């Protein structure tokens, strides 16, 4: 675990490689229970079978808004226990976003005790008074904890921090060392780097990596919360091989590999089911049912209740058909 005082020096060396954001397998009536065996199997697959060096727990893909405080605590504890038994050096990242600062504090203190390495706080989802309110939120948590903190700037919050607001949080809260920029705004990420060059930054728009931003030090060599386990298998680790080329600064080779391996086309064929609900197309979401539908195609356990919990809708059959065709075309699923 990185304590607050050492967070920034730690982050520069420790945050590297693929960080898998885990879904939550549900079971029971209406998905009211969690399939713990399926969750443990997912962790073993990511850390053991795929060899990915980081986990991202209880965040958007995990449907944190639909989980109780106690469920979120237990999910993190199981992840730490299972992952460290396989790889003692695995970096465990916990999202402790919550509507109230007090709930966020409870989850952050628990993550600190449970052995998480860093905590990410998504921009609050309700009644956020702009950057001033988010800064107060971070200061409240930092004053009462001693663990590395990261920002999670997601449009699913309904409010996205400006580069100036994020930089102010970084400069005024020493425990803040990293940020996941999830709004697909490369120009804003470049500006944030100019304002806070010491901040470890991951940009969700992968084109910036092909443009040499890693070489230039604008973005980091880690994926701070993605679903890499849905883009490859142990027998065909195409996602890992692609990012190894990026990290080695072999950009032309990476672009060729993205095309020739089918990864680029796969993203087009999958459409936007992971992040867009057709009934509300302007809203960015983390559709848990879509991630679990994709996982099931790869043979990963998703629990007896394959849907998201409310307030998310059930994934339509058309989406599942489209995903199945995309995976077959990529060659990760047999025809």
Commentary on this structure:
- Keywords: Lyase.
- It comes from Mycobacterium vicinigordonae.
- One of its GO terms (molecular function) is 4-hydroxy-tetrahydrodipicolinate synthase activity.
- The protein has 335 residues and is of the alpha/beta class.
- The protein has a domain of 231 residues: Aldolase class I (TIM Barrel).
- The protein is built from 13 helices and ten strands.
- It has an eight-stranded parallel beta sheet. A two-stranded antiparallel sheet has the order 2-3.
- The longest helix has 18 residues.
- The protein is globular.
Could you give a short description of this structure?
Pfam families: DHDPS (PF00701). With 335 residues, the chain is of the alpha/beta class.
CATH topology of the domain at 6-236: TIM Barrel
Largest sheet: 8 strands, parallel
**Helix proportion range:** 40-55%
Distance between the termini: 44 Å
* Proportion of residues in extended strands: 5-15%
The spatial strand order of the largest sheet comes to 9-8-7-6-5-4-1-10
Query: Looking at this structure, what is the CATH superfamily of the domain at 6-236?
Result: Aldolase class I
Uncertain residue ranges: none
| SSE series | HEEEHEHEHEHEHEHEHEHHHHH
Number of strands: 10
How is the secondary structure organized here?
Elements lengths: L6 H8 L2 E5 L4 E2 L5 E2 L1 H14 L4 E4 L11 H18 L4 E5 L5 H14 L3 E5 L7 H13 L5 E6 L9 H10 L3 E6 L4 H10 L4 E4 L3 H4 L11 E5 L11 H10 L3 H10 L2 H8 L17 H10 L19 H14 L5
Parallel strand pairs: 1-4, 1-10, 4-5, 5-6, 6-7, 7-8, 8-9
Antiparallel strand pairs: 2-3
Helix pairs in contact: 2-3, 3-4, 5-6, 6-7, 9-10, 11-13, 12-13
